[in-house]
């Protein structure tokens, strides 16, 4: 097998598109979540899935189908990773206009640690790892040991966890599943993805953690994702060096009185650099914006989970 070679030149004049990995064991509900995402999307996104045939899209929304690629009337594109991530990414990079966000569905047996390096492939910027976990799988002691260990490893790599099938479980079972998640991924936000416990299509919107909106690299979703989420704006006064910025970020949980699910913003430094701040669950990243992405400093948008 020939090793994959990254493109020699960056696509889209150097712009990077945020990319979210969505993982979880077989039957946890990943494909259902992605179906919701495509139904709820109000902006052009690209979705890389294992099997395009499993995606349930209204035929009226399909603009063109070419093999394992679906192009939708709203500008979204859905393609298969059957030939590997490199081929799928090349297919997206070949598009003249970049999508605003990329969602990558991992196979049911994939572990995020093995694919995270792809999140910084040419033209892309890692936005986070969402793991979809089902209540019944988390508490089923009858599963083979290797399956339970595999689920444990998947959960431990999450930046956020969506707990599904809570609508099919009683309260003690759900409580036990949440406790198990707390042991496997301490401090990682857990949201209820059970049917009937969230607004329609909220799960799909939740997967698109961030991304460009109206050209703003620091844009994040609004406060309508889940009823338990609260969105606040934190003004940043004047330029900050990295040490000052890190100290400010350390104070976010205390300042907002809850678990920080998501935070994003652009901060100016004393030497006039622009730093992109991204917090997704327990992951924190501060990176220098490329010249093609330079923009004015913004407030820090903070999404927290109400206690």
UniProtKB/TrEMBL annotation:
Residues forming coiled coils: none
A Pfam family reported for this protein in Swiss-Prot or TrEMBL: CobW_C
Bilayer-crossing regions: none
MF annotations from Gene Ontology: hydrolase activity; nucleotide binding
Catalytic activity reported: GTP + H2O = GDP + phosphate + H(+)
Gene3D superfamilies per record: CobW-like, C-terminal domain, P-loop containing nucleotide triphosphate hydrolases
Domain annotation CobW C-terminal: ranges: 236-303
Limits of the CobW/HypB/UreG nucleotide-binding domain: 18-190
The organism's place on the tree of life at top rank: Bacteria
Xref: InterPro entries: CobW-likC_sf, CobW-like_C, CobW/HypB/UreG_nucleotide-bd, P-loop_NTPase, Zinc-reg_GTPase_activator
Family per similarity comment: Belongs to the SIMIBI class G3E GTPase family. ZNG1 subfamily.
Protein's name in the database: CobW/HypB/UreG nucleotide-binding domain-containing protein
Organism: Ilumatobacter coccineus (strain NBRC 103263 / KCTC 29153 / YM16-304)
């Amino acid at each position: 097998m020939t090793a994959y070679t990254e493109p020699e030149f960056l696509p889209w004049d150097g712009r990077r598109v945020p990319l979210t990995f969505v993982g979880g064991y077989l039957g946890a509900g990943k494909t259902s979540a992605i179906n919701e995402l495509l139904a709820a999307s109000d902006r052009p996104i690209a979705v890389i899935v294992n099997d395009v045939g499993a995606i349930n899209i209204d035929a009226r929304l399909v603009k063109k189908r070419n093999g394992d690629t679906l192009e939708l009337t709203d500008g979204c594109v859905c393609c298969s990773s059957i030939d590997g991530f490199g081929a799928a990414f090349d297919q997206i990079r070949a598009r003249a206009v970049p999508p605003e966000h990329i969602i990558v569905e991992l196979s049911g047996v994939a572990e995020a640690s093995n694919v995270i390096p792809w999140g910084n492939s040419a033209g892309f910027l890692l936005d986070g790892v969402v793991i979809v976990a089902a209540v019944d799988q988390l508490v089923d002691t009858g599963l083979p040991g290797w399956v339970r260990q595999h689920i444990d490893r998947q959960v431990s790599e999450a930046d956020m966890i969506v707990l599904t099938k809570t609508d099919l479980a009683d309260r003690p079972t759900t409580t036990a599943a949440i406790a198990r998640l707390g042991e496997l991924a301490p401090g990682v936000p857990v949201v209820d993805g059970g049917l009937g416990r969230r607004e329609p299509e909220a799960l799909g919107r939740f997967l698109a953690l961030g991304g460009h909106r109206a050209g703003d690299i620091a844009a994040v979703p609004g406060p309508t994702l889940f009823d338990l989420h609260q969105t606040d704006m934190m003004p940043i006064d004047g330029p900050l060096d990295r040490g000052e910025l890190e100290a400010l970020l350390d104070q976010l949980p205390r300042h907002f009185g809850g678990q920080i699910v998501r935070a994003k913003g652009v901060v100016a430094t004393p030497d006039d650099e622009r730093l992109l701040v991204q917090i997704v669950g327990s992951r924190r990243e501060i990176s220098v914006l490329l010249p093609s992405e330079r923009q004015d400093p913004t407030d820090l948008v903070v999404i927290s989970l109400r206690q």
